[in-house]
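Revision sheet: structure tokens.
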Amino acid sequence: MAAQAPAQAAKALNPAFNPRTVHFWAPVLKWGLVLAGIGDFQRPADQLSVAQNAALTATGLIWTRWCLIISPINYPLAAVNFFLGTVGTVQMSRIAMHHYNLKKEAEKAKEQAPPTAA
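Predicted:
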């Protein structure tokens, strides 16, 4: 039992999630992507990139799941990935609504346009 004490103490003093590991810095730095996505809420929907937001949504949701099945489980990274996926989903829905409204406006303008003589 005494032989295990130093190993247990070392494990307690050096957890998997500390500032000297990637398990700490990956979520900290990834919050920058979430904040950038939140900043894009102010941007008009026609200026948003479908490819970029689809990638953020997919990676956010995929990595959320992955963070919960790897060892050690990294809850901070899972949380930031969940929010990244959420921000991407909100942006994708804004883009979809913008395209839907453009189509509806074009149909309305076409109905209101006077018939052209051929």
